[in-house]
Amino acid sequence: MELQSKLSSALSSAVPSVKLLINGEFIESRSDQWRNVINPATQQVLARVPFATRQEMQAAVDSAKAAFITWRKTPISTRARIFLKYQQLIRENMTELASILTAEQGKTLPDAEGDIFRGLEVVEHAANIGTLQMGELASNVANGVDTYTINQALGVCAGITPFNFPAMIPLWTFPMAIACGNTFILKPSEQDPMVTMRLAELALEAGIPPGVLNVVHGGEEIVNTICDHPDIRAVSFVGSTRVGTHIYRRATMAGKRAQCMMGAKNHAIILPDANRSHTINNLVGAAFGAAGQRCMALSVVILVGSSQDWLPEIIAKTRTLSVNAGVEANTDIGPVISCAAKERVEELIAQGVKDGAQLVLDGRKPKVPDYPKGNFIGPSIFTHVTPGMSIYDEEIFGPVLCIMFADTLADAITIINANPHGNGTALFTQSGAAARQFEEDVDVGQIGINVPIPVPVPLFSFTGSRASKLGDLGPYGKQVIQFYTQTKTITARWFDDNVNAATVNTTISLK
């Protein structure tokens, strides 16, 4: 046992530890529970991440609560300038950030840069907080009476973010919350926290004061503490439906605001008049990019009418995709995040075969000679998929595409509306009439017309719906300003001093 303890201690000292960020300082956790951050292409241990103790979590909350007293009254122009500086620093460090992200998450370098860039767009939007946080005014709603609103910060807010977008999703949360005048506690995924921590370093460099942004790491215990803590006013979450449902119920029962973006099963309908090459290229990229590990992945395609004849071309295009480590040039599909994730996807593929779907392209056990230990799964395609099959009912979160068939657009819309999820959907067509019918009749929050992954730019809000979302207000855009602020409505009446004096004199003389 002594030898084992010495070996463990030596290993721990050789691997860097991920720090906590509390009150503007990066500190070493005193936790006795740690997890390895593993490169999914090589199984190399990159770092050790702590599961923060209760005392460390309380210190983060205390720091944020104390900082809120002054931060909430910081001029809005000062807050805006910090985020102008922050977006500049992210751009200057894009290559480094992408390298860290690829090493710990596995996605290709171009995908990693895209991950960061989509978060950067929200940082740029946060720099416009001066116009976003304005209230309303109505003058003379009665004689000499004005009514106006102000949007004030809530207090300490928190974000719980997933492994699949370790840069973009954190940047969806704390920049907008902090720009509105709140302080923030971020809990990134313990599977790939390193790029998030580098973004936190840059945030401090941009001028975010001590205590305004804090970062803790951990699992279920930290999540529950965030939901329960009386000093945390709002919680933002992106991740699985199971965890999101738990967080929403627990946080709202504790009187908090909560927004939970959860699981999905996104469909695309292909009409025969669609641009063939454009459509197939988009389908393949949206289905298999990021190894299918995104809540907006296009995991189901419904071929309508004669577009069913496109199936051989879809399969042929998919076969051209390269599976390799994300750092290698011309890689299309990197590894999935963990060995457990790989096993789960492979089990779902096997279950799809048992359920009667036709596996027309099997991506299990691809050959990646230079990375024999990687968590690789090649692109897989099923046809003749029906509701009730596991591969259709569950979010696979891997490079697996389910193909269904329908006779008409109306039949395809019926299939989509019967699915409980409502994150995103797309229609490929050259018919304006068909597009209008689709927009009006499909019951999904985010719609693409000849756009496979309809995630809106930050000028608009992320509007997933039904089982894909809990909470009325989405991240970024106009809705997130409502989420992170409390509206106060003021009705005011002021009197001229001379008028008051005349009124008083008249009253006295009458007596």
Automatic annotation (TrEMBL):
Domain Aldehyde dehydrogenase: start-end pairs: 27-490
Keywords: NAD, Oxidoreductase
KW NAD (keyword) present: yes
Top-rank taxon, per record: Bacteria
TM stretches of this protein: none
Sequence similarity: Belongs to the aldehyde dehydrogenase family.
Name of the protein: methylmalonate-semialdehyde dehydrogenase (CoA acylating)
Organism of derivation: Undibacterium flavidum
Source organism phylogeny: Bacteria, Pseudomonadati, Pseudomonadota, Betaproteobacteria, Burkholderiales
